[in-house]
Amino acid sequence: MKELKKYLPPIIMLLVFETVAVTLWLTKHNLFYLFNFTYIGLSVSVGVFLFIKKYKYARRITQLLVGLYMLVYLGIISNENMQIEGFWYYLFTGVFEAATIHYAVAKIFGPILFGRGWCGYACWTAMVLDFLPYKVPEKPRKKLGWIRYLTFTASVVFVGALFLAKVGNIERIMFWAFIIGNILYYAVGIILAFAFKDNRAFCKYICPITVFLKPMSYFALIRIKCDKEKCISCGKCKRVCPMNVDMTDNSRKRENGTECILCMECVKNCPKDAL
Question: Is the pTM of this model over 0.85?
Answer without folding.
Answer: yes
